[in-house]
UniProtKB/TrEMBL annotation:
Keywords: Pyridoxal phosphate. Its cofactor is pyridoxal 5'-phosphate. Residues 10-291 form the Tryptophan synthase beta chain-like PALP domain. The keyword Magnesium does not apply. The lineage of its organism: Bacteria, Bacillati, Actinomycetota, Actinomycetes, Micrococcales. The keyword Cell inner membrane does not apply. SUPFAM superfamilies: Tryptophan synthase beta subunit-like PLP-dependent enzymes. This is Pyridoxal-phosphate dependent enzyme. It comes from Paeniglutamicibacter terrestris. Pfam families: PALP.
Amino acid sequence: MSFGTLSPFVSPTVQLTQLFDAPDIEVFAKLDSLQLSGSTKERTAASLIDGLLDSGRLAEGGMIVESTSGNLGMALARQCVVRGIKFVAVVDQNANASALEIMRAFGAAIDVVPTPPDGNKLSARRKRVEQLLAEHPCAVTTNQYGSLDNPAAHFSSTMPEIIEAMDGRLDMLFVATSTTGTLLGCQNYIRHHQLKTKIVAVDSLGSVLFGGESGTRSLPGLGAGIVPELALAAEPDIVWRIEELEMVAGCKLLAQREGILAGASTGAIVAAMSRQLPSIPAGSRIAFLVHDSGVPYLHTVYNDTWVQENLAGKTTVKAGFGTTSAGVL
């Protein structure tokens, strides 16, 4: 089995000219939605598994148990099947049904954790992982929330690819946050190479990251109910907190103006960029990650009935951008 078969491939970074009416600012998108499992988590999964194999904690034929809201689960399921490793995905009741079907298609076992009385789904998932590890002494977890192999993936591949594609000229990078592994890897690369690029963390309203207040969230993949270990080292220059209806509007804007079908976290980035644009100097070059494909969100984000039933009464913003004062910390 060749290394190339297992590794994520280099995804294109393309310039977008129709997303915003901002002719004095160049906007670029890194299309990691084109990874084989449909998201940038393909890089994370490969790095996490490589770290376990290299350390001897995991052998071919072994078992991985991991908490996931969807994207990492799909990536781990794909990576595990080509490596001959069993995989158990611990998910909550918010998990995207399409993502679960994709995991099952790759042969993963799905363990659904009920929502606890306090509503903290992430904490409940992590507790269930510990229970399963105790029941299966030979199993290991990739620990996406604390393993340094998570940011290492983006230090070694994601950020270098962006910088190379843009000839080293990048003023601002927008990254969606959950475990903060992608953000931290990009941050470490910027600091290591002494670049002037500012990092903008895009978080969900209701997430506790970066001092946020806990709240109910309906869309998976963005934000966190507890502060992951990796987040303690993450120091973005700017933080935006985005409401879920704005994420939907961002997804639809990206699809209908640029023909890119992306997931909720990328829609949040589009909303954050829209808020940030008035303060970005003319001549700037900004980039963002298209973290995942919108295909698993066709029955939620892109379904007007679902949005009306699940989000319409839970937001203080209109179905557009720039209508709320929440923003930069």
